[in-house]
Amino acid sequence: MLGEKMEEAKEAGLLAILNIATRNERNKIILLQFGVLSSIVELLQSQSTRLRELATAGILTLSSPDSNKPLILASGAPSLLVEVIISGNIQGQVDAVTAMYNLSTCQQGFDARICLKSAFHLLALLKDCKKLSKFAEKATTLLDLLSTSQEGRDAITESEGSILTLVETVEDGSPLAAEYATSILLNICKSCRDKYRELILNEGPIPSLLLLTVHGTDRAQGLAHTLLQLLRDNSKQNRVSTEELQCMVYKIVSHVDGPEKALETAGNILKDVTGRDPVVGIVEMN
């Protein structure tokens, strides 16, 4: 009975903190100055699923001001958030990923390797979420940071279905999610082209990457171009003819831009990828 009352009191305290902090940046900073962080971090280790979920929401709420981020990073909260990503309920996982994303923007003290244990779970969440969502952008941001180290790339590629999930994000994601997913694929391919080139190609990324070279963010365009170069088969035996490439690109682009605008867009893509001006060939083909 006493235990239940204690848990109810802790829940009430966490709800009060959330109410005070929600949509008020000044209150978020003041709450940390009053020392509430240590109590919330302690509740992140609670045996109660409800308390862990509320504590995760508390860290998420308090992690938005830049001045709070170094304090949260130093508190031990990130490793506990990773445990929530691994074993929490769906709301807890989403809040934990978002909190980690907020913390990842801090230049002081964030180490992406802390997410190594959660790579499989991040990919599973990315697979199941709407690729156009803000959550997909946050998950791919963390995975992109992970992919800059060999340990991170290993954790990603050892997760079943990871390449397909990333290719689907390039295809269906928002401009930012597509950018980060392309960056991850590029980091993986650059780390060992002989090992990963075919694995990536088998998931059919070429149409989406071609479109990204024109319609993506500035960074995504460069990343997509570089990845396409790595994925090209330079052997004479398997080289696609110029005419076949023109036909393929035109068909892809025409579904997005329409037949008239597709001529110009497809020409720009092919010129960028091959270094040659193929517009005449496309017009004749059409």
From TrEMBL:
Domain U-box: 16-239
Coiled coil location: none
Keyword Transmembrane helix: no
Pfam short name (any one): ARM_PUB
GO CC terms in record: cytoplasm; nucleus
InterPro entries linked to this entry: ARM-like, ARM-type_fold, ARM_PUB, Armadillo
Entry keyword set: Ubl conjugation pathway
PANTHER family in UniProt: ARM REPEAT SUPERFAMILY PROTEIN, U BOX DOMAIN-CONTAINING
Protein name per its UniProtKB record: U-box domain-containing protein
Organism encoding this protein: Zostera marina
